[in-house]
Input
Amino acid sequence: MFENLDAVILARTQFAFTVSFHFIFPAFSIGTASYLMVLEGLWLKTGNGVYANLYRYWIKIFAIAFGMGVVSGVVMSYQFGTNWSVFSTKAGPVIGPLMAYEVLTAFFLEAGFLGVMLFGMNKVGKRLHFFATCMVALGTLISATWIISVNSWMQTPTGYAINERGQFVPAGSWLPIIFNPSFPYRLVHTVIGAYLTTAMVVGAVGAWHLLRDRANPGARKMFSMAMWMAALLTPIQIFVGDAHGLNTLEHQPAKVLAMEGHYEPSPNGASLILFGLPSNETAEVHYKIEVPHLGSLILKHDPNAPLPGLSDFPRDQWPPVPIVFWSFRIMVGLGFAMLGLGLWSLLARWRGALYDWSWLHRASIALGPSGFVAVLAGWVTTEVGRQPFTVYGLLRTSESHSPLDAAAVATSLIAFIVVYFSAFGAGTYYMLRMMAKPPQAGEPEPPKIPQRAAGITPAAAVATSTERKA
Amino acid sequence: MNMADIDLTTIWAGIIGFAVFAYVVMDGFDLGIGILFPTFSVGEERDQSMNSIAPVWDGNETWLVLGGGGLFAAFPLAYAIILPATYPLIIAMLLGLVFRGVAFEFRWRDPRHRAFWDVAFSLGSVLAAFTQGMTLGAILQGVHVENDAYAGGWLDWLSPFSLLTGAAVVVGYALLGATWLIWKTEGSTQQRARRLALPLGVATLLVLGAVSAATPFLTYDYWRRWFAMPGVLLTAQVPLLVAICAVTFFWSLKRGAERLPFMTALGLFFLGFVGLGISIYPYVVPRAVTIWDAAAPPQSQLFMLVGAAVIIPIILAYTGWAYWVFRGKVGTHGYH
Output
C-alpha cells in the first residue's frame, strides 16, 4: 500500500502522528496542573474540604496524563534526528539549546517538586506542599515556553546568522531568538487553549456526575469552576487569537490567506469565506458562502482595506490550502461553541439553575473532548500553514528530511500506530474509568501498589500517598 | 580552532558521555529485571522484583532524554548522522521503552490483565536492551558518511558484529538485574537471583571478551589504538582490571555477599565503557566525524553549559537522595 508514497510524505505523517499524540497529554496536564494549584490554594484559604477532595480526585488523573506526556516526549527527542536529520544539522545550533533547556527545566521540576506534590502532605506540611504544587504548575508553563519558543522561531526566524557550513547559528544575543516576533502571541494562545481544554474536561466530568446526582458537592463545585473558565476565558481567547492572526498576517501572509481561502487579491476589501471547498489545483474555492468585506474588517479592522491573494506569491510557496482552511474553521467553530456554553452557563447561573438544567449538562459533556480537537486543529493550522518550509522562508521541508528509505519509514509508522493506540489507548481508558467514578470524600485506591519516588511517570506514587493518608 | 571551543567541546563530550553511562548503569539493572522477568514465578517473586525498581526506574530513564537532547544541542551533526544510520534500531528501542513504561504502570492498575502487561514489560525490556547494544555495534563498526550526512542504506547496521553487541548488552543488563536483586531482595527471589547470577556472570565475561576480541579487527585504527606501543602499556590495564573485577565477582558470589556482586558487575560495565572510549575518542562517529567536527558553535555550547552546570548537580543530588530513601531490602508491598 506504500508503493506510491515517498519517504518524505511518510516521514511527515509519522512526525505528525507522534507529535499530535504527544501534544494531547501536555495540553491537558498544563491546564490540570494550574487547576490543582487553584484547588489547593482555595482549600488552604477557605478550609473547605470539598476542594481537598477535588484535589485528590484530579491529581490521580493528572499523574497518568503527565506520565504519558513524558513517555511520548522521549520519542520526540529522537524523532528530530531520525526523520529530519538535515533540519537537525542546520537548525540544531539554534533550536537545540532551547530544547535542551526544556529537558533540563523539566528535569528540575520533576526532581524537585513533583515528588513532593505526589507524596502527600503528611510528609512536608501544607504550606510546603502547596509551594510544590505551584512549582509544578509553573514548571509545566516553563516547559511550554521553551517548546513554543522553538516552534515560533521556526515560524518567524530572527537573530540568526548562517555559517560557512550552511547552519543557522546565533548572530549574537539569544534574546531575539527566544523572543522572536510570533512567540508571545503563540504562547498565550496555546496556554489559554490548554486551560480551556482542561476546563472542558472538568466541566464534562462534573456534568456527567450532576446528571446522576445533583447534590454531589464535588460535582457541583467542579462544574461551576469549569463554567466560569469557559465564560471568562473564551472571550479572551478569541481576542488573543485575533491578535495572533494579525501577527501572522504581518510575518506569514501566505498562511493567513490559506486560512481565509483567498487565492485572488482583493483590492477593494476582502470577504469572509464561511465555508467552501478550496482547491490548490484550480486556485479557487468552490461552493463558497461568503460575507462581503468582513474579511478585511477582521484582518485590517477596516472593511475596505485591500488584501493580497495567494496568487501574489510564487506557486511553490503555497501551503496546502484545503487542510489549513478546514482545520482553522474547526478550531474557530469549537471556540465559538465553547463561548456559547460559557454564556449559557452564565444565564443558568443568573437564574439559579446551574445544577438543574440537564441540557446544559449534556451540552457540556458533548463538548468535553472539544478542547483536544480545537488544540490539535489549531496546531495543524499553524504547522501545515508553515509549509512548504520547516524554517519559514529559509529551509524547505523537502530539503530537511533524513536520507531514509520509504520501506523503513512505512514500517516504523505502522509500528508507532499500533503501539501508541494500544499503550496510550489503555492509559486513556484508565483515565476515563477514574473520571466515571463520582468525586467523594476519601478516594479508594487499588491495593498492592508499590512505593515510588518522583520520576517521569509518577502515576503510582499518588496511590501510595493516598493509601498512607487513609 | 581556538582553545575556548576545544574546552567547551571536550566538556560537552564529557557531559554526554556521563549521561550515557549514567543511563546504562541505572536503566541497565531495571531493564535487566525485565529481561529476567519470565524466569520469576508469578506472584511474590515478580511483585518483589518489580517493587525493588519501582521508586527509581523512571528517574533512571530520564538520562536517556538528557543524552539525546544534549547530543542534538551540542553535537547536531553527530545526532543527524547517527540517528538515520540506526533508524530502525532507535525506533524499536523507543517503542520498547514506551511499552515497558506503560506496562509497568498499568500492571498495578489492572490486575485482570496483569499477565498481558507482564509480557509487554518483559518483551519491551528485551527489545530496548538488544537494540541499544546493536546501536553501539553499528556505531563501532562505522557508518558511511558523505558531505556531512549519512549516506548508507537502511539496513547497514545489521551485521554479525552488531548482533553480537546486541546480545552482549542483553546478557550484561541481565547480570546487573540479577545482582541488583541479590542486594535488594530476600527469600526465594534472592535465591533465584543468586542462581541466575553465576551463569550470567560467565556469559557476560564471554560476550565482553568476544566483543573486545572482535573490535580491533574491525579496522586497523582500533588495532593501533589497543596494541601499538606505547599506548598498549595503558590499554593493557583495562583487561587486567576486568580480570580483577571478574575474580572479585565470583568470589563475592561464592561467599554469599549481597552488595559486592552488584558493585563488581557495575565495575565490569565501567571498564567496558572505558574500553569504548579508548576505541572511539575523539571521534563521535568513528573514523568519520570528530567531536570538533560535529560541535555546535561555541555560543550554543556555552549557553547550554550555564544551564547544565546549575541543573545537573541538582539532579544528581536528588537522585542520590531517592536511592538513600529507598535503601535496604524491599518487601512484597514496597520498601520497608
